[in-house]
Please model this.
Amino acid sequence: MQVFTSVLVLTIVFLVFVITDIRSYKQRKVESMESLAQVVGTNCISTLEFNDDDAAKQILEELHTVSPEIIQAEITDKDGKLFATYIKPGAANFPVPADANENKFTFTGNRLFVTSPIISNNSTIGKVLLQVELSELQQIKQFKYELAALLFLFALLFSFLIAFFIQGYISKRLLRLVNTIKRVSKTGTYEPIADDGKDEISTLIAAFNKLMQQVQESQKRKDEFIGIASHELKTPLTSIKGYMDLLKLKEDRQPNKQFLEKALQNIKKLESLISDLLDVSKIQTGQLELTICEFDMDVLLDETIAAVQMVSTTHQIIRENKAKNEIVIADRQRIEQVLVNLLSNAIKYSPGEKEVFVESKKSGDELIIKVSDSGIGVPKEEQTDIFERFYRTKGISTHISGFGLGLYICKDIIKRHQGKIWVESQAKGSAFYFSLPLKKSE
Ligand code: ADP
Model:
């Protein structure tokens, strides 16, 4: 845009420059030829009065030495009859335009025609007509156009270079801003952008820094609130659960026992939510600690599958291909938490289906666990987002309960074990994978 504007302005400036220069040259030429025609006219007064056309012709021929550009000169008497004429030797005959005799001067092509009346005793006794070849004008035009083109090119190059550097400076800062925005939306982490400029972009960057600072502060307050609230909720809930368990043991009558069981089921749900919130708060403050030990993943898989199977009345969890000697060094309880979450999700997000599959296989020095279902699947564009805090897929039905915390916690746990977690999902069903480093054999 900048270069385009510069080109437009430069073109106008150079056109004005060339046109005014040529105009002023023509003006000067007209003035000098008019004076010359007046001088010739004055000198020819007596020749006209005495009808001495030879003398008039001689005067005209002298023009050759005074101004070689004059290629034709004529003197006419008061009736317009040709009295004397001069044609520069070798000059091509050029017809005098009809209006040349009426105007004081006329330009035709590269010719200039100038007329001047011959006045004696206040009456016009004839007229002088000079025809001038403006060969110099052609050279001047060419020179000016060449000069203008050269200057234009230099100016263009210069403006392009300036635009290029300014553009680079501006784009670099804008790109930095855009990349930071992308990073913030992807990872949630934010570092203030340093910028010492004084233009609109600096104002924009400063406004963005301030906005992000406010967002971070409110995020921090929200995290603190979640941490404190879940902590404060946990103690009374544990106590309620204890009393309910006790009541359930003592109560044999129906439907009281059944009501207690229902209440306990909901307390369990609340407990799991509070535990997730506490975990998120621990992740945020970097306090999620691991208790590392060596264990057989095969055993853990069987145990966890059995535990989840106990509470699932709709699905059958089927264990496929087992890897041999699945010894890993990890936090057993946290890995179990990951497995429970993936299995519960596989059941929860495959309503109407009957099976969930679990597989384990070795790949290099890693063990890969796969939990798959034939459920609603995860759209391609959301397969990374579902591992973010509070993220639930857009088209998800509202009657499938959840808070979007489980996978976020799983991702953090697996990351802390130097493993990876990901999802593969096509039209139907999804397969969640996570990898853990295997114990190196001695
Ligand atoms: P929650 O299940 O409580 O919503 P999660 O963090 O466990 O939270 O899962 C986040 C989102 O990922 C879910 O809301 C759901 O949209 C999607 N998701 C997780 N597991 C599956 C699955 N097996 N099939 C389809 N979608 C899933």
